[in-house]
Write a structure and sequence with these properties.
With 139 residues, the chain is an alpha+beta fold. Helix content is 30%, strand content 25%. The protein is built from three helices and four strands; from the N terminus they run αββαββα. A four-stranded antiparallel beta sheet has the order 2-1-3-4. The longest helix is centred in the first third of the chain and has 24 residues, at 2-25.
Length: 139
Amino acid sequence: MRHRIAAVSAAALLTLAGATGIAQAQPASLYAPSAVVLAVAQGEDEATVVRASTLSCAPTAQGTHPNPQAACAALAATAGTLDALLAAPDQNRACPMHYDPVTVTVDGVWQGSRISWKHTFSNACAMSATLNGNAVFAF
């Protein structure tokens, strides 16, 4: 008798817990979070941020970035490998050979995974030529 009461009580608790707990365990959205902070800084290690922008890509493109749709599309095209942003430099653009480093960063969450990416260019012209009009840092 004691085992039957315990079994019925356990079943009732599981049913009650299941009915209330399932709603809390469901994700708030069908989309994995994709929200990042983009920054352009003057210098290398102890760089001073010159400008920054926020970008959220799921479920819709939004943020302080002036063209969030294009920036989200460009980030999505990298398939998670942000070095792909550097893949199409303009070979016809000549830049001065002076060293005045500019560092770009992407920090946040992309498709549910934490990301932190940084690249330093020798100067602003080299950054512009390497990113070649890419929408991600066009702010």
